[in-house]
Input
Amino acid sequence: MKKIHFIVGFVAIFLSCTLTGSVFAQRLSANTEAMMDSVFAKYNNKTGPGCTVAVIRDGKVIFKKAYGLANLEYNMPLTSASVFDVASLSKQFTGYAIATLIQQGKLSEDDDIRKYLPKVPDFGDVITIRRLLHHTSGLRDWPNTLVAAGWKWSEEASFEDIMRMVHNQASLNFKPGADYSYSNTGYNLLAALVENITGISFRE
Output
């Protein structure tokens, strides 16, 4: 049986799933576009966000198409080249990358993050990879922290800006493991950790 990967992009939402089955593969090759148009018909309108879809079989794109709007205010249609802000859904891929490195024996989830990111300040308590993964590190969340420092929500913060915020943080919000606080900062550090261990960019 062939494995078929769907990558469906909604506005601000990224959905990835894998479908396996010879019956589906046969249907796909019969009348791909008509079938996909039927599946995604409810997104092909001007009253709500649209979506894009790509079907990949054996490493090759065999179908791609956009449905509906990318911007409701300006009535801008989506295209198959539209870029989506996947936002925090990227955390799933970050966690997967860390899990892969753990399985490869390249790190442990109980390692001190400063082992891989020595520029992170020593706050007097060990922050482990596990704490970053589970939002229990005590690190301040960068969006709110940068806004408190005078940034506007509309301003783009670079990875260097976020790292500078971490380096300038004088103390933690709480002792690692003592509480839970959703942290984008923790996942930015995990991405940096992946880069340091693999030697390639997180984007790659």
The first helix runs from residue 22 to 30. The chain has a mean pLDDT of 83. The CA atoms of residues 179 and 190 lie 19 Å apart.
